[in-house]
């Protein structure tokens, strides 16, 4: 019975049908399905399928954005049940678009997907100076820090930020992404990981935190 509900959740996410997903969530919760199982076996699996379609070129940026928002809304819907079962966060992630850049779409997709996968996300927004990353990292002690840059002139600020974090003993792993970066220059500026899209970023965050 529960397997059918999980399969339906996955199908609704792939179809980008938030209304049908909400009905299935209500049914699952009324039957006493554990929220953690809803997330791991239904929602996260469905979102991973969306990510696979994106990587194969079957889905595009609008679909990825919409699926991230659907996932975020689904988590919001079941959050009271998560609190009642004392579900713990999968980890803590600090995000921001680096100083000199005000692009936010990729970052916001990544944030939504991370939240949907159970991570506690703190988003600093856009045009974030290096000192702000450092101050917030000291305050939160995140597991991972994510930075994005869509324009090339912001990459030097990203390198400055990474150096500042390391010089001040911040132990969080740094993941970077955006059109201004490649895996090669991500390593050059001192980042631990590079992600070309939101779903690859989630897989990297999982691996970093599990490690």
Q: How many DSSP H or I helices?
A: 9
What name is given to the CATH topology of the largest domain? Rossmann fold
- Helix-and-strand structural type: alpha/beta
Question: Which sequence of SSEs, written as H and E, runs from N to C?
Answer: HHHHEHEHEHEHEH
Number of domains: 2
Oligomer: single chain
Rg over CA atoms, rounded to whole Å, is: 18 Å
SS elements, strand count:
5
Shape estimate = elongated
Give the CATH superfamily of the largest domain. Answer: Cobalamin-binding domain
Spatial strand order of the main sheet = 2-1-3-4-5
Instruction: Please outline the major beta sheet.
Output: 5 strands, parallel
| Strand portion | 5-15%
CATH hierarchy: architecture of the largest domain: 3-Layer(aba) Sandwich
Q: Helical amount among residues, as a percent range?
A: 55-70%
Q: List unreliable stretches of 5+ residues.
A: none
Q: What is the CATH top level name of the largest domain?
A: Alpha Beta
Distance between the termini: 34 Å
Overall pLDDT confidence: 89
Features:
211 residues, alpha/beta, Methyltransferase, Methionine Synthase (B12-binding Domains), Chain A, domain 1, Rossmann fold, 2 domains, five-stranded parallel sheet, 5 strands, elongated
In short:
This protein has 211 residues and is α/β, with parallel strands linked by helices.
Task: Describe what you observe in this structure.
There is one protein chain. By secondary structure, the protein is an alpha/beta fold. The protein has 2 domains: 2-84, Methionine synthase domain (Methyltransferase, Methionine Synthase (B12-binding Domains), Chain A, domain 1); 92-210, 3-Layer(aba) Sandwich (Rossmann fold), CATH 3.40.50. 60% of the residues lie in helices and 11% in strands. It has helices spanning 2-14, 18-30, 35-55, 61-84, 105-116, 130-140, 155-167, 183-188, 198-210, and strands spanning 92-97, 120-123, 144-148, 173-177, 193-195. A 5-stranded parallel sheet has the order 2-1-3-4-5, with helices on both faces. The longest helix has 24 residues, at 61-84. The model has no long low-confidence stretch (mean pLDDT 89).
